[in-house]
């Protein structure tokens, strides 16, 4: 006897449709949903984007003979189409984001702006290295500094 769990597959940003996904695919499906949310709200750098792409590829590599959650001599778990569709959406959104980064990288920059670009990249790296507590401490100290200006 096979148990079935119900999950929602986003069709567009404003609507959802009830889809049947078997228990064997539940973890993969939930992981893909979380990745999809991360991708469509992504605002980080190219390195972070490549890490997301690696996570998607790891899930893609879970297929055995093109099937998710399949074990020898067992029936194919229900929900293959839903999981595959969501995986495809993750790949599609990832390609869109990667293309945006490629467009930016291939755009010629006025040579006089290169030092500013490097400074901004360094500042962004420093901000990415800060943890949430550090940011709050800096934000709390800003009014003291602004009062002296």
Give structural notes.
- This protein is mainly α.
- Helix content is 62%, strand content 11%.
- The chain is built from 5 helices and 2 strands, in the order ββααααα.
- The chain has a two-stranded antiparallel ribbon.
- A hairpin with a 2-residue loop joins β1 and β2.
- The radius of gyration is 22 Å and the shape is elongated.
Q: Key terms for this structure?
A:
single chain; 149 residues; mainly alpha; two-stranded antiparallel ribbon; 2 strands; 62% helix; elongated
Which range does the strand content fall in?
5-15%
Q: What is the number of strand segments?
A: 2
The overall pLDDT average reads 78
What is the approximate shape? elongated
Spell the H/E element sequence: EEHHHHH
Structural class: mainly alpha
Widest sheet, order of strands = 1-2
For the largest beta-sheet, the strand count, sense and barrel status come to: 2 strands, antiparallel
How helical, in percent, are the residues?
55-70%
Cα(first) to Cα(last) distance is 72 Å
Compact summary:
This protein is mostly helical. Helices cover 62% and strands 11% of the residues.
Layout of secondary structure:
Elements: E1 4-12, E2 15-22, H1 23-40, H2 46-60, H3 80-106, H4 114-129, H5 132-148
Antiparallel strand pairs: 1-2
Helix pairs in contact: 1-2, 1-3, 2-3
């Amino acid at each position: 006897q096979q148990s079935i769990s119900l999950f929602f597959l986003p069709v567009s940003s404003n609507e959802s449709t009830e889809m049947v996904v078997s228990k064997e695919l539940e973890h993969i499906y939930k992981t893909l949903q979380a990745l999809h949310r991360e991708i469509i709200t992504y605002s980080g750098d190219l390195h972070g984007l490549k890490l997301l792409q690696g996570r998607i590829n790891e899930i893609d590599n879970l297929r055995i003979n093109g099937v998710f959650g399949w074990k020898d001599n067992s029936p194919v778990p229900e929900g293959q189409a839903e999981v595959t569709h969501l995986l495809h959406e993750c790949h599609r959104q990832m390609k869109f984001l990667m293309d945006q980064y490629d467009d930016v990288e291939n755009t010629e920059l006025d040579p006089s702006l290169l030092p500013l670009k490097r400074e901004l990249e360094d500042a962004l790296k420093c901000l990415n290295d800060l943890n949430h507590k550090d940011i709050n401490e800096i934000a709390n100290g800003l009014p003291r500094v602004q009062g002296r200006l």
